[in-house]
Amino acid sequence: MVLKCGVIFTCVVVLLLQAPESVTAKICILRERNFTSEIWDFWTGYYCYNYTPDFRLNFRYTNITGYILNGSQIPVALIPDEEIQYFSFHYKDPTSLQYLRKSFQTDHFFGLWINCCEEASDCCENSMTDENVYPTEEYPCPAIWDGWTCFDPAKAGTIQKETCSKQAYSTESDVCELQSEKTCFANGTWNQTTDYGVCAIAPVLRHRHTFNVIALAIATVISFPAVVIFFSLRTFRKNLRYIMHRNLILIIVIRNLLTIMSKQIIILDALNSTGTTVMDENSVACRVLAFFENAAKNGMFACMLADGFYLHKLIVRAFANEPSLTYIYVAVSVLSFLPSLIWAIVRNDHGAKDCWMVDDTNDQWIIDGFRIAILVINFLLLLDIIRVMVMKLKRGSVSQQVKSTFRATLFLIPLFGIHIVIITNRNIVPSNTCEAQDIYYYISYLVEGLQGIMVALLFCYINSEVRGELENAFRKFVLYLEQRFDLKFEKKEDLRRATTATYVEAYNRK
Ligand SMILES: *[C@@H]1O[C@H](CO)[C@@H](O)[C@H](O)[C@H]1NC(C)=O
Ligand SMILES: *[C@@H]1O[C@H](CO)[C@@H](O)[C@H](O)[C@H]1NC(C)=O
Ligand SMILES: *[C@@H]1O[C@H](CO)[C@@H](O)[C@H](O)[C@H]1NC(C)=O
Ligand SMILES: *[C@@H]1O[C@H](CO)[C@@H](O)[C@H](O)[C@H]1NC(C)=O
Ligand SMILES: *[C@@H]1O[C@H](CO)[C@@H](O)[C@H](O)[C@H]1NC(C)=O
């Protein structure tokens, strides 16, 4: 966004040049001109209005002319057909407010204009002192109000940054704060055009979600072979502990894929395209995707619980019966789908829009509460396991396998716990700047991606039993290959020998 002067404004400036200036009054700088504080609010109010983006207005008062107030020129808007002929742009003048409100589309946008006027007033009163409105040796670029933002004095050849004005955002509200940039040239003059292009929120969000997609894609690529390994070897298909591990990794992979899909198809699409987006269309298909993504996330926690439950059975209730697999599958399905179903019904009630992707009604708590509950249960199981484990370890009556599963679980439950603590506490971000939020989101997405990788790593890739089985399988496979290869090779050799023999024989016969 770049500030532009209308044709009418230019003629007002010309008029202003002829206006007498009070010498003793406080001076404040608005772009390339300076004004006494008496008429400051009239001018800045006009600038704030003039630079208000078109999409915030119903119509724009364009018939602007100059009016002499106490010997100084101020801009006023002319209204030919009404009893009032003109009004000023002072944000404290009730008549002006009444006319200007009609021009704005919403109270919110009107409020932003008033906000701009107040900031301008504050800038003149508090940021522009008699010292810093004049260029100095060190700070050749004086304090300045550029129409939207108050900039402090700057050294030559530097870039001065200030929080982006709310006037600069194209969205209804700002998600996080960015910094607009104004250059003080090497020759000691301001670039009159402040760079507000950096105030766009969309690229910030696009980077975050793209990072999320990449992290999940990497995690998926890394953890998928573990699923294949667990499925392909008979030993693992028979062992309940490995079935649990496999299902956990599998559900994480499915969840990663669903999240990647919804981010790509719905969220990144909404950030990239300008026309009607998938999110605007809000089709049934995209809500179904949101539902299954949600259920898959629950499934992760449910499978985690099943895993913890089984470890608890192995260690604490060593002589209890093996739980039935069917029973576990039913329990996991209920724990995955029931909360999502409740969530979907409530969301539907609250006006199903934006593909259920934007949580503007705080329904997310239904799901988060459930996940936290599962984690707490898991944590309690873990504590009980630790208690018994300590006793058993003293007696040395624990198998290597159970020990390694225990160690893995000991690590994984807190990892899942940390992640949910992070994502349910968005307000832990100390400041409202986009950088601070970025750090929060990047860490959160990193931990999210790490979950799948760590589960695959701990339960599969570095597990000694799995590696033993894999080495076995590999040896068998090599043997098998060798046998086949040898067989072929021998046959070929025999054949060649036979040919040679025939050849030699034929030769000898000559
Ligand atoms: C204000 O403008 C006048 C002439 O336009 C100039 O002489 C004066 O130095 C300016 N004051 C400031 C503080 O820039
Ligand atoms: C105009 O001048 C009069 C008297 O000098 C003063 O009372 C009044 O506040 C001034 N108006 C503005 C808008 O500065
Ligand atoms: C602006 O106002 C003047 C005086 O009322 C009128 O003559 C002129 O036609 C108006 N111009 C526009 C563009 O409305
Ligand atoms: C200062 O430098 C900028 C760009 O380098 C140029 O646009 C501007 O006209 C210069 N101003 C003066 C007063 O020399
Ligand atoms: C002044 O800033 C604007 C916005 O960043 C930029 O487009 C323009 O090139 C700059 N002017 C000069 C002379 O550098």
UniProtKB/TrEMBL annotation:
A GO biological-process term: cell surface receptor signaling pathway
Main subcellular localisation: membrane
InterPro entries according to UniProt: GPCR_2, GPCR_2-like_7TM, GPCR_2_extracell_dom_sf, GPCR_2_extracellular_dom, GPCR_2_secretin-like
Location(s), subcellular: Cell membrane
Signal peptide: 1-25
GO function term, MF aspect, one: G protein-coupled peptide receptor activity
Transmembrane segments: 213-236, 324-345, 365-386, 406-424, 439-462
Name by which UniProt lists this protein: Calcitonin gene-related peptide type 1 receptor-like
Naturally occurring in which organism (per UniProt): Zophobas morio
